[in-house]
């Protein structure tokens, strides 16, 4: 068998031996990728670009051996909420302490990702890559990213938060802008974490998705995390130099974003103009979107096929988790290297629940804003920042904060950037109950209870195609939701 590589090798040998002079050679340097005699210059491995950032999934303990239809546990939501006196009369007993323990339950949920590769693709790539292996690896990555998203913001039917109907938005004239001078109205739709990810101004607010299973079985519908639309706002008339409107709405627990439909009166005439990570929207131009508010007709905020995530379990009624909306305000510097809102939350949870061990989780943009705020010193006592230089006197600019000191206990709290968290939401995730709890019998304040942890399966062949799935079955258990906190609707500095 005579191969192309043999031809090239022998040609090179003749050139080196002088039997064939380069100037008289028949073949010159190919002028195209396919012309002449040349090898195909291809890397030996197929390059994959799959962002796989799953800090919550990596840090939350996974406990196997679970069984039955649902997990049942008791969660402490208040400790001696009555704060009764301890002194008693002679020979008399005191009242029971008012420890509030709620019965929590969560139906185990199966999460799965499907991938496939044809037999022909495997044969064609033989000697270079295994397309079946690439499909399996891609499925694993997709599953891990998907589970991370559910751990962060899953919101299930029954135990989650129904976002319902938002309050009626209000508007105020703002100078500047290029809106048409007219009477403008607004509708607003609240979004869960999944709703925020699935929606865009160009594509519209995602209400439901129809899923056709890979095995050809009956399709099913998944709610994507959007509330019903609000009532129509009162008219705000733009005119002259006031051609912008600031729209606002009362914050909703469990919502991480809001979609704004603006235009003339009537849901059919108000188009999607913006999606924000706070409960406020500055409209400076007429809406050019294609989805009208009339497309939103029901509350689709709860997804029955996932479990409740951190945001839902901390935010929902009865959890007693700390929840505060900044209503589109930015973080406030203490002038002493700290942040007012952080200190307020940490002191509150310490005073009320004696908790101090946290991970502070925020988006990349909010992390930068927090670092900038912490670097801001008071006028009289500015914060000092050390500037690093090398032996040649070259200076290195830039700095960032990676930890935060608890204002009461002095414990060092890690600042964690999460690439899948909206800018307006900051989570204070409790790591453990702390040294003040003796014999607490709570090894993990958060854990993944698994009936079946992640595994990969190859389905029986039905066609000339390898069909693969990555599957796991479990729920997120929060044993002390009251110890956690969320600061919501945090604006970024302009």
Overview of the molecule:
The protein has helices at residues 4-17, 55-59, 119-124, 131-153, 193-198, 310-315, 340-353, 364-375; strands at residues 62-63, 70-78, 100-107, 109-118, 170-174, 183-191, 208-211, 220-223, 236-237, 244-248, 257-263, 270-276, 280-283, 322-329, 358-362, 388-389, 395-396, 403-405, 412-417, 426-430, 446-458, 465-478, 485-490. With 494 residues, the chain is α+β, with helices and mostly antiparallel strands. Among the domains are: 1-39, no CATH class; 170-295, no CATH class; 321-387 and 398-490, no CATH class.
Describe the structure in brief:
This protein has 494 residues and is α+β, with helices and mostly antiparallel strands. 17% of the residues lie in helices and 28% in strands. Among the domains are: 1-39, no CATH class; 170-295, no CATH class; 321-387 and 398-490, no CATH class.
What tags apply to this protein structure?
494 residues; alpha+beta; four-stranded mixed sheet; 17% helix; globular
Provide the fold topology.
Layout: H1 4-17, H2 55-59, E1 62-63, E2 70-78, E3 100-107, E4 109-118, H3 119-124, H4 131-153, E5 170-174, E6 183-191, H5 193-198, E7 208-211, E8 220-223, E9 236-237, E10 244-248, E11 257-263, E12 270-276, E13 280-283, H6 310-315, E14 322-329, H7 340-353, E15 358-362, H8 364-375, E16 388-389, E17 395-396, E18 403-405, E19 412-417, E20 426-430, E21 446-458, E22 465-478, E23 485-490
Parallel strand pairs: 1-21, 14-23, 15-19
Antiparallel strand pairs: 2-3, 4-22, 5-10, 6-9, 6-11, 7-8, 10-13, 11-12, 15-20, 16-17, 18-19, 20-23, 21-22
């Amino acid at each position: 068998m005579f191969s192309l590589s043999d031809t090239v090798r022998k040609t090179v040998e003749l050139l080196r031996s002088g039997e064939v002079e380069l100037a008289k050679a028949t073949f010159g340097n190919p002028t195209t990728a396919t012309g002449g005699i040349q090898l195909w210059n291809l890397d030996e491995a197929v390059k994959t670009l799959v962002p796989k950032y799953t800090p919550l999934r990596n840090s939350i303990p996974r406990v196997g051996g679970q069984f039955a239809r649902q997990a049942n546990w008791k969660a402490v939501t208040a400790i001696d909420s009555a704060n009764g006196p301890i002194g008693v009369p002679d020979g008399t007993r005191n009242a029971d302490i008012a420890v509030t323990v709620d019965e929590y339950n969560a139906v185990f949920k199966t999460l799965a990702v499907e991938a496939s590769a044809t037999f022909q693709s495997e044969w064609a790539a033989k000697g270079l890559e295994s397309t079946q292996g690439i499909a399996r690896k891609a499925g694993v990555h997709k599953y891990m990213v998907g589970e991370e998203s559910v751990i962060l913001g899953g919101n299930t039917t029954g135990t989650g938060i129904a976002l319902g109907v938002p309050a009626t938005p209000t508007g105020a004239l703002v100078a500047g802008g290029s809106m048409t001078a007219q009477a403008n109205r607004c509708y607003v739709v609240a979004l869960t974490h999944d709703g925020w990810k699935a929606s865009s101004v160009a594509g519209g607010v995602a209400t439901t998705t129809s899923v056709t299973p890979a095995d050809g079985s009956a399709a099913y519908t998944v709610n994507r995390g959007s509330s019903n639309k609000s009532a129509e706002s009162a008219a705000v008339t733009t005119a002259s130099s006031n051609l912008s409107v600031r729209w606002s709405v009362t914050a909703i627990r469990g919502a991480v974003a809001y979609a704004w439909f603006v235009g003339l009166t009537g849901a059919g005439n108000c188009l999607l103009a913006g999606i924000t990570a706070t409960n406020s929207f500055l409209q400076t131009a007429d809406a050019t979107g294609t989805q009208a508010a009339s497309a939103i007709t029901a509350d689709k905020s709860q997804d029955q096929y996932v479990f409740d995530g951190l945001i839902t379990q901390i935010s929902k009624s009865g959890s007693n988790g700390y929840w505060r909306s900044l209503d589109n305000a930015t973080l406030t510097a203490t002038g002493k290297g700290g942040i007012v809102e952080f200190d307020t939350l940490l002191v509150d949870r310490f005073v009320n629940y004696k908790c101090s061990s946290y991970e502070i989780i925020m988006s990349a943009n909010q992390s930068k804003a927090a670092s900038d705020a912490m670097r801001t010193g008071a006028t009289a006592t500015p914060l000092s920042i050390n500037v690093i230089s090398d032996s040649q006197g070259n200076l290195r600019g830039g700095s960032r904060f990676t930890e935060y000191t608890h204002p009461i206990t002095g414990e060092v709290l890690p600042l964690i950037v999460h690439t899948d968290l909206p800018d307006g939401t900051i989570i204070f995730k409790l790591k453990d109950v702390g040294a003040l709890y003796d014999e607490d019998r709570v090894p993990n304040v958060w854990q993944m209870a698994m009936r079946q942890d992640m595994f990969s399966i190859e389905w029986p062949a039905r066609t000339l195609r390898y069909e693969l799935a990555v599957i796991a079955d479990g729920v997120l258990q929060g044993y002390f939701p009251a110890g956690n906190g969320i600061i919501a609707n945090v604006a970024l500095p302009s």
